[in-house]
UniProtKB/TrEMBL annotation:
This is Diaminopimelate epimerase. Keywords: Amino-acid biosynthesis, Cytoplasm, Isomerase, Lysine biosynthesis. Catalyzes the stereoinversion of LL-2,6-diaminopimelate (L,L-DAP) to meso-diaminopimelate (meso-DAP), a precursor of L-lysine and an essential component of the bacterial peptidoglycan. InterPro entries: DAP_epimerase_AS, DAP_epimerase_DapF. It catalyses: (2S,6S)-2,6-diaminopimelate = meso-2,6-diaminopimelate. HAMAP family: DAP_epimerase. Its main location: cytoplasm. The active site is at C74, C74 (proton donor), C223 (proton acceptor). It is found in: Cytoplasm. The lineage of its organism: Bacteria, Bacillati, Actinomycetota, Actinomycetota incertae sedis, Candidatus Hakubellales. Homodimer. It holds the Pfam family DAP_epimerase. PANTHER family: DIAMINOPIMELATE EPIMERASE (PTHR31689:SF0), DIAMINOPIMELATE EPIMERASE, CHLOROPLASTIC (PTHR31689).
């Protein structure tokens, strides 16, 4: 494990540390992930991607939040992984499959000057049944459902995109109380496995604006599953069409909820740099913890 090599990626400002575990076992305890993701003290990132071999797909991905917890799925993260395996010669096809905690996902790559540039991932079908999100309460769906939290009545739409989401529609995204309501909803009794929270404004039928409070991370500049949740919730409530552009603080992502039920996420991915975490720094983190 020593030293620890990594590659830094981002999609619309949603940044990740990718560690290649194909050739050797990598030990990533939660406290080390937390230290790696700390900005100014570590590498700094919204999450850590671990690339692994798979028996059922081309590759396997594990995704960790900044607090060290493991997430089931990450739409931007899986697209960054797709760019890594193509650009670094691990696959020579423009279509590949990746095993995740939310099932096997299919990716399609578009090239620019021989390198992966824009990547589309089939995110699967959204799930609205509360028990499968999971969300506490009576069986059924939470579509524009009123809930009481911290003496506030909020109207939410809940769903799973392989991970739990809670969507609130607001008049203005810029002034939405993301830092107040985000952690309240993430850790509320309604979501036993916590939840991601989207604050969404419908600009027109094919255009949304959103901010995302990510479970285990906080507010991020972009979120792939969050963009999908925003789009699906908007369409399900008949506020928007099934194919939209989602404007996030870091840039735009495209979401297409097709008539067969599958949701496709498309956007750019960027490799920023390659680096090495020194053995001395790693050992220091173990000693401090």
């Amino acid at each position: 494990m020593y030293p620890l090599n990594f590659v830094k990626f981002h999609s619309q400002g949603n940044d990740f540390i990718l560690i290649d575990g194909l050739k050797e076992e990598v030990d990533l305890p939660p406290h080390l992930i937390h230290h790696l993701c700390r900005r100014r003290f570590g590498v700094g990132a919204d999450g850590v991607l671990l690339l692994l071999p798979s028996r059922v797909a081309d590759f396997r991905m594990r995704i960790y939040n900044t607090d060290g917890s493991e997430a089931e799925m990450c739409g931007n993260g899986i697209r960054c992984l797709g760019k890594y395996v193509y650009d670094h010669g691990l696959i020579d096809r423009l279509a590949l499959t990746v095993e995740t905690g939310a099932g096997i996902k299919c990716l399609k790559l578009a090239l620019r000057e021989g390198r992966a540039d824009r990547i589309t991932v089939n995110m699967g079908m959204p799930v609205f049944e509360k028990s499968r999100i999971p969300m506490a309460g009576e069986r059924g769906e939470a579509i524009q459902e009123g809930i009481l939290i911290d003496n506030l009545t909020l109207k939410i739409t809940a769903l799973s995109m392989g991970n739990p989401h809670c969507v609130l529609f607001v008049d203005e995204v810029a002034s939405a109380p993301v830092e107040k309501l985000g952690p309240l909803l993430e850790n509320s009794r309604f979501f036993p496995q916590r939840t991601n929270v989207e604050f969404v404004s419908v600009l027109q039928r094919d255009e949304l604006e959103a901010r995302v409070w990510e479970r285990g991370v906080g507010e991020t500049l972009a979120c792939g599953t969050g963009a999908c949740a925003a789009a699906v919730a908007s369409a399900r409530s008949n506020f928007a069409d099934r194919k939209v552009v989602v404007h996030l603080p870091g840039g735009d992502l495209e979401v297409d909820w097709q008539e067969d039920g599958y949701v496709y996420l498309t956007g750019p991915v960027v490799e920023i740099y390659q680096g090495m975490v020194l053995e001395e720094w790693l050992l220091q983190q173990y000693e401090e913890d």
